[in-house]
Amino acid sequence: MRLTKKRATQLVRKWQTVLGLKDWNIATRVGTVKGAWGKNDLLPEKRQSLVTIDPRMGAPKETVRHWPWWKANHERTIVHELLHCHLYQLRKRGGYHEEQVIHALSEAFLKLKRRRK
Fold first, then answer.
1. pLDDT tens for residues 4-52?
2. What confidence tens digit (pLDDT) does each residue in 78-92 have?
3. Closest by Cα among 40, 80, 73, 41 to 56
C-alpha cells in the first residue's frame, strides 16, 4: 500500500502524542529520501521538525548490513524518525549510537502496541 501524505500525517500525530512530543511543531512530508526510509530535519532549539517518509520502502544496503532484523514499514519509520526529537543530543557522540538506541526503542514501542490489540 502506497503511503499518502494524509496517512503519514495521521501516523505522525498519533505517535507524537504517544511519545510525548505535543510541544513540538512537526510537519510531515512524503517523498524520496536518498539512502534511507525516512529522515527528520530538526530545529531542536525551536522544537520544530520536518519528518520525511519515503513511500517506496526499499532497504538501503547499509541498514540491512547493520540491522538485518529491521523490517521496513511506514509506521515503524515514523516512530523511528520522531524518536530523533528526543535523542538528537546523542549525535554529538556519533550518529551510530543514536541509531542503535532509536532502532531498539522503535521496535519496543511497536511490540507494545501489538500486545494491546
1. 999 999 999 999 998 889 999 999 999 998 888 899 999 988 999 999 9
2. 999 999 998 877 666
3. 73
The pTM for the full model equals 0.75
Burial of 113 (0-12, 13-18, 19+ CB in 10 A): middle
Spatial contact of 39 and 30, defined as CB atoms under 8 Å apart: no
Domains of the chain: 5-116 (3.30.2010)
CA distances 87 to 3, 4, 32, 56, 61, Å, are 26, 27, 24, 26, 24
